Fold these 2 entries.
Entry 1:
Amino acid sequence: MTVKVSHAPEVQTLFQEACGLNNDAGSARLKQLMQRIIGDIAKTIEDLEVTEDEFWKAVDYFNRLGARGECGLLVAGLGLEHFIDLLQDAKDAQSGLTGGTPRTIEGPLYVAGAPIAEGAVRMDDGSEDGVATVMFLEGVVRDTLGQPVAGAVVDLWHANTKGNYSYFDKSQSDYNLRRRIVTDAEGRYRARSIVPSGYGCDPQGPTQECLDLLGRHGQRPAHIHFFVSATGHRHLTTQINLAGDQYLWDDFAYATREGLVGDIHFVEDEAAARDRGLQGSRFATLSFDFQLQKPPAPTAVRRSARPRALQGA
Ligand code: MBD
Ligand code: FE
């Protein structure tokens, strides 16, 4: 028989005190969240009869997870980041906000402040010339009516041929494969880059250690991340996941969605390559358009019934 004490008054009082509910300082929101989370953990411990050994293993695991900077990786791998998208999709559907390019997770590897360019840019630093396949990526940003949006910012980032991202992979130059492109008068962005490889969790890291125990791999299909933003439109966080990748629909982070599969074309044509300023004959093209939504209507402010003169008093 399982022994339960989490609902005993003395335990509730303990957690209440530990979560700062007996003082007036700090953050009321954090107190509310912490009380719920601590209570849920306590319930899990007694319901599932978590042993002390299991408990301390978990504490050690979180230390190692944080020390390796893999918290963001684990929440993606456990489907929680995708859950946040599903929840937002449901909220949008309920408020009648539909259409536009689907959102999908940001992941843990964005770096702000990438070099900004007008219309067209080369994203790779040339360090994988001869190894990588050159990729010409382009598309149009449109509004809800299908009209091109000039001056939109397309902030994109992707991995190199080893599946590694600059900044996190210190062997790459700063902002390699990370750019912001401002769309031209026709709403178009263009990038010359290299075909990315899929990402795999560090086989030695704590996230993969957890996935191993869940009987899962830690692989993502080849993909390109995007933030697309323009004044008067809703910010879009999304990705293009590349068709033909063995992990396209077996993504450990659950980011691939209908409408976000990029139809990449590999070309073997020496004349066409020369026209594009390349040596050799092989390159790839990928065209992907985005459609932004109008920003959600601000939720109505519920006005206090108090007389104006007393508001803020
Ligand atoms: C990635 O490149 C990524 O996009 C996600 C979501 C998780 C890990 C690595
Ligand atoms: Fe990624």
Note: The mean pLDDT is 95.
Entry 2:
Amino acid sequence: MAMIIDGKKISQQIKEELKEKVALQKAKGKTGALAVVQVGADPASSVYVRNKKNACAFIGIESLAYELPEETSEEELLSLIAELNGKEKVKGILVQLPLPAHINEDKVIQAISPEKDVDGFHPQSVGAMVIGEKGFLSCTPAGIIQLLKRSDIEICGKNCVIIGRSNIVGKPMALLMLRENATVTITHSKTQNLAEVCKQADILVVAMGKPQFIGAEYVKEGAVVIDVGIHRDADNKLCGDVKYGEVEPIASAITPVPGGVGPMTIAMLMNNCVQSIEEG
Ligand code: NAP
């Protein structure tokens, strides 16, 4: 029986801590707002945006909503970002991804001032993370580190295998694990003998975007399994990249979907906003 890593509970603890920090900041006259920009009305994005606004309200920071129509041009979006970059009150800018196909996401991410890049996606934030300098950390991987630490799971010296090398999860996850002194292996769709490589992992982070792909044959007895995937199964129920029922009995600890990694991403976004307000 694995320990179930309760992301809902841990994220709530983090938000409670941030709420106290925000109150202290306010007492010192330090305030700021998060600008949340959504282009189009993709239902999944709308849920994420709503959750982010609710988290801001909970910890006590203002959120400014910019809901733009699907047909917004790249130029219009870039001009809004330039305006938000210049607004003193705005301490964080979040552009909900994915953007409609006619808008270049990289261009938009790079237009956000690194001082307000609370998603941690700007190349300057990524570069700072690589060399261990101060900057905003990518929220999902930073949330996974918190999940492990707050569950008293040792990272230092452990073999960590990551499935996936995306810019938002796999790559930053590898760097943060390395920072925590894990021995890190990154795998991807061209990796040979994936199951064999994964079986070496003390900590297996699965971010491949393939519903219920990873079964018992990929997991060493007693490994810690972190499931980043989010999907809907045939019954429209949320599920991850891991076959939970099969893996849970052999893992020592595992994140459920929902209620594992997902809630941590928003908690770490709030953490970045509070950090930005602090740095003023
Ligand atoms: P992504 O950009 O699609 O990247 C998937 C990665 O998995 C790629 O590097 C790909 O390899 C690798 N991969 C795909 N099939 C594979 C296979 N058969 N064997 C080995 N590697 C394989 O996805 P992402 O943005 O990183 O997201 C991954 C999952 O996490 C998705 O389900 C997403 O919805 C979820 N997610 C959750 C949160 C959260 O807050 N919980 C946040 C972000 C993402 P190649 O590079 O070779 O193509």
Note: The longest strand covers residues 33-39.
